[in-house]
Amino acid sequence: MGKIKTVEYFRVKPRWLMVKITDENGEYGWGEATLEGHDLAVEGCLEEMIVRIVGMEANEIENIWQTFWRHGFYRGGPVFMSALSGIDIALWDLKGKVFKMPVYELLGGKVRSKVQVYCWIGGDRPADVERAAKARVAQGLKHVKMNATEDLNWIDSPSKLDATVERIKEVKALGLDVGLDFHGRLHKGMAKQLAAALEPHRPLFIEEPLLCEHPEAIKQLADRTTIPIAFGERLYTRWDIKRFLEDASVDILQPDIAHAGGISETKRIAQMAEAYDVAIAPHCPLGPVAFAASLHIGLTSPNFTILEMSLGMHYNTEAGDDIDLLTYLKDPEVFAIGEGGFIKAPTKYGLGIDIDEEKVRAIAKDTKPWQCKVFHGPDGSIREW
Fold first, then answer.
1. Rounded Cα gap, residues 236 and 241, in angstroms
2. CATH of residue 94
3. DSSP sequence for 72-110
4. CA–CA distance, 317 with 121 (Å, rounded to integer)
5. Is position 70 within any domain?
6. Which residues does the annotation mark as catalytic?
7. What is the tens place of the pLDDT at every residue in 105-125?
8. What is the pLDDT of residues 145-174, one digit of tens each?
9. Considering its fold, how many domains does the chain have in total?
10. Ranges for the Mandelate racemase/muconate lactonizing enzyme C-terminal domain (predicted)?
């Protein structure tokens, strides 16, 4: 395994940022540095990193990770960690290919042979979800996730929560387990009411019931509900999660491998969580490289429970470009959903996927930066996306 020769990045539709690292022997690996709505910032960070990484030993993944973490002086945050994630994932893929083994073997080997997945139903403004849920059943899925509510005011009419309860009843009647994503849209007064209303209907989990910048409120909510509390997509390092593990305020951590320092840091987060009896359900509404990398975390982590999959997700399909999770794969069958909603462990080297580089380069030529959604209340005030 040789020194790093080139690092390239590609902004591609619908909203993903892929990274390719090639060593001096011509071997290469793919990573993903997607940070939804902040492409240009991550690209700028990658430009700074590329200057330092070229010429380093590609085999020394941990040394490279620590170099950027410690010698950069300023640490953490979504932009820096997403750029680092893209590099880290690509290096693991490259190393697996060079040593001719799947990444999960490099991580100590599998603890399971397949990974449970869930997919989305509905969009940012959930309404008719029953039809979408039936389509997921036909795909073989047993678990789905949907947004719990539309955007809400700081304190809003309690009647606006009624539709959430009706939707979960509709979907569960089809035999599906449902995770509900609050998306940080609700503030404390509304989140408490909705959690109480949902409790009799036993959702799989409630995700980001409150924003992680309110740890004291999350702790209060966790102490008053029996529903598992899930969050972590906006936590980027093992240091970010310490408070929540020590508080016993989270039941399911959801690190996003494209935001949380790649395979190296996500694996460390999973191991920390295990020591606190907390499950891991990687957040991944992203592209095929991030999803493949997350599969290897799931395959090697005893406390893994379920993995998000963006197949057919509204963010992929709403632009009308006919681009989805499988678009950039030469062999889409590697992500085939089997009986019970499981995906089998990949068998090829590295991440186990073959990226269609020609298609990546072609689509990258005219892909504009993706913008985050914007919501306003009837009074014109800004609401959480």
1. 8
2. 3.30.390.10
3. TSS--SHHHHHHHHHHHHHHHHHHHHHTTSBHHHHTT--
4. 12
5. yes
6. 183, 283
7. 999 999 999 999 999 998 666
8. 999 888 888 898 988 899 899 999 999 999
9. 2
10. 126-228
